[in-house]
Design brief:
Helices cover 44% and strands 18% of the residues. It is of the alpha/beta class. It has two domains: 51-211, Glucose-6-phosphate isomerase like protein, domain 1 (Rossmann fold, 3-Layer(aba) Sandwich), CATH 3.40.50.10490; 232-378, Rossmann fold, CATH 3.40.50.10490. The strands form four sheets. It has a five-stranded parallel sheet, with helices on both faces. A five-stranded parallel sheet has the order 11-10-12-13-14.
Amino acid sequence: MYYWCAKMNCIEKIERFCMSYLGYEIEELLDMGAIHTSREICQQPELWIGVYELLKKYEQEIASFVGEAYQECDRIILTGAGSSAFIGATVRSHFQVNSGKLAEAIATTDLVSNPRTYFTRKHATLLISFARSGNSPESLAAVKLADELCDQCTHLIITCNKDGELARYQTRSKKYVFCLPEEANDQSLAMTSSFTGMVVAGICVSKMSQINELAQPLTQAIEAGQKFINEQLLMVKKMAELPFNRIVFLGSGDNYGIAKEAALKLLELTDGVVMSAYDSFLGFRHGPKSMITDQTLMVYFVSPPDEHAYQYERDLINSIKLGTRPLAEVTVSEYTKIDITGTDQIIFTSSPLLSKSGFLSVLYILVAQTLGVYKSISLSIKPDIPSRNNDISRIVEGVTIYELFA
């Protein structure tokens, strides 16, 4: 486990002795094959400080690059594969608001298979690529296709691996690569600290010219995240012990991206034993609601009570009581006073600064990450390498990239 000391614009990483992670002793975690995932989850609040300080170190050059890209582009595409694609969905609104340009979250897996559907010559494009390793075949293929199909394309690459193919990609277009601190490059299969680290980086970069305004809400997020890890894990562990074989995550706006990532975490970490799904609150009414059984755990990532979306979220949650009842329901919220009853509640903080900044997203995903690890352990699955038949791997394998037809 690490903490960060910042003096001026320098970061000093100091390793400290830690006897346990997620309530388990080190030896237990080694035996259960959970040491990397557990450590990488617990280090996240401190990692977010490191990400911010590293951005501050290169503040002027990043702000200049992003400001110029905003002026020159007609549209912004945020991309990545798997969890990295969900980062784009989580931070998309920040780039749209701060740039004043249309921003879309489109996975590399869509861009590569149907590139002409998304890339056009006449639209100057800012392509923002998120990647943990930067070695996924689709990551490199997407930036190459953008160069080939767009007359003007600017690349912003946010990655956890300075030695990855994506970070080293040579392009004729303008390019800036931001590499997160080394600790963000998770060793476990499931993305945890790499995911939240890149979300924090994305939110900050989107508003780079005013990054100082984000220091206070990020500090609040760090404190809330550490408090969750220190004080609220027992509740999550008890949730994991419930006999559910289905789980549904619902979220609106930025939290829709978090719901996607949460569903993937439970699916990966339980090797598909627990079937997971995600949706928006309104979307869930249109058919998917029929998947609820008495062995389903419902998890609601709700918006603050003063938000327009919250009214629809509250109505959906209340409607669940009128149909097939799930095994259990959990509301994850920022505020202590929400007019929702009949669910367990995980509450973070009531700071309006935190909500408006977007950093609430990295707190919400902590719930799914820890729930996934505890459920994996309860099923005698190793969280660090949960895919028992090697159906999935840390870096996707077996993808052939084909040349684009003329």
